[in-house]
Amino acid sequence: MKKLPVFLFFVLPIIALSQKENKFGSSYSYCNWDNTKLNKNYIAKENDTCLLVVSTRNYHALKNEFLDYDYDTTGTLNYFAVYFNGNQWTAVPYPSLNELLTIKKEFKNLVVFTEGLGKTFTSGIDRATQLMRTYQIDELFFDWPTERPYMKPGKNIKTTCKLAPIVAQPFAVFLENFETYKNEHPEKFKTTTLFNHSMGNLLLMYDLQNDYLKNIHTKLFDNIVLNAACVNQKNHKWWLDKLAISKNIYLTINDKDRNLRGARILFKARQLGESPQPEYCKNVTYVDFSEVLDIEHNYFLLPNVLNQKPYLKKFYSDIFNGQTPQLIFKDNSTPEDVKKYLPGKSENSIPIGM
């Protein structure tokens, strides 16, 4: 077996472990198989919150751990309403996306969320739950396997990267089905946002590169957010220019992001959410958080970051609520005559608000 370079033994744990950052002060326990059950006959309680889930995993209806760590190679999508209350999650299966979406009479502002590396079914549900609790939105979570505990971190990352172009196809089918339902029931929807985080943006990239979204003919979303995108930034304009299914497109950047810096070393390529380079997309708003963030990658959910920097939470809240967000973020604590001596971007600066 080919040996990994020594530096990768330092990079891989950083990437893998930082996907599982502590909630830092949350009063809730993590979602896991001890507090997650499948119950086809469950009747929702008045104070339950409902997360809608579309999963690409192998489904085992008779097992306690009813969704495993691997992709269903038939491309089958499985649908669940996951009701949570405190530290308990109960999943109710549904036969189709149409029937799943029908359980809600109307939606609050809806976020269609796709996660990145390091997510089993329960840890993905945990993060999706955090997103709902933090921003008080309705959510449709697209679940794909990006963490396999039986694999070493390096092999898991490699397997996830190989799987992404395959999962991109059912992801496109899911979006087509969502468009059909939304067009048939426009009265049920307010602001709708597609939110792909980190390596979740690989699915969107492969969809655009391969024209898998060509059958979507409407502005399906009010907003699309490519958040901390862990994809190669090279020639990103070629595929991102094809993204025409949303009124607004936002791409968030942190040039100190430890995950994306690690990915740059691992993949020998600058990452889109860390250091996008020209040519830039005129249909995309590049939002640079570099001056106001440190090494954080999951900055949209970390309570300590959002508490210390409430304008970050407001940025996401504004998007989810259909409002125009703040686009320029500057560190006003550092004098301008000092900033010019600090390491920074080249003369080819990122065009804010393009």
Summarize the structure.
The protein is of the alpha/beta class and 354 residues long. It has helices at 8-18, 97-102, 121-135, 153-184, 201-209, 236-240, 258-267, 303-308, 310-320, 336-339; strands spanning 36-38, 49-55, 57-59, 67-71, 78-85, 88-94, 110-114, 138-143, 192-197, 221-227, 246-253, 285-288. Helix content is 31%, strand content 19%.
Poorly predicted ranges: 6-10, 20-25, 340-348
Content-based structural category: alpha/beta
Tell me, rounded to a whole number, the average pLDDT.
91
Q: How are helices and strands ordered from N to C?
A: HEEEEEEHEHEHEHEHEHEHHH
**Strand tally, please?**
12
Quaternary structure of the protein? single chain
The amount of beta strand, in percent, is 15-25%
Strand numbers in spatial order across the main sheet: 1-6-5-2-8-7-9-10-11-12
Distance between the termini: 47 Å
Looking at the structure, what is the overall shape?
globular
Helix content: 25-40%
Number of contiguous helices:
10
Main β-sheet description? 10 strands, mixed
Radius of gyration: 20 Å
Description:
With about 350 residues, the chain is α/β, with parallel strands linked by helices. It has a domain at about 10-30 and about 125-140 and about 145-340. The protein has helices spanning about 10-20, 95-100, 120-135, 155-185, 200-210, 235-240, 260-265, 305-310, 310-320, 335-340, and strands spanning about 35-40, 50-55, 55-60, 65-70, 80-85, 90-95, 110-115, 140-145, 190-195, 220-225, 245-255, 285-290. The protein has a 10-stranded mixed beta sheet. A hairpin with a 7-residue loop joins strand 3 and strand 4. Helix 4 (about 155-185) crosses helix 5 (about 200-210). The chain is globular and about 60 Å long. The model is unreliable at about 5-10, about 20-25 and about 340-350 (pLDDT under 50).
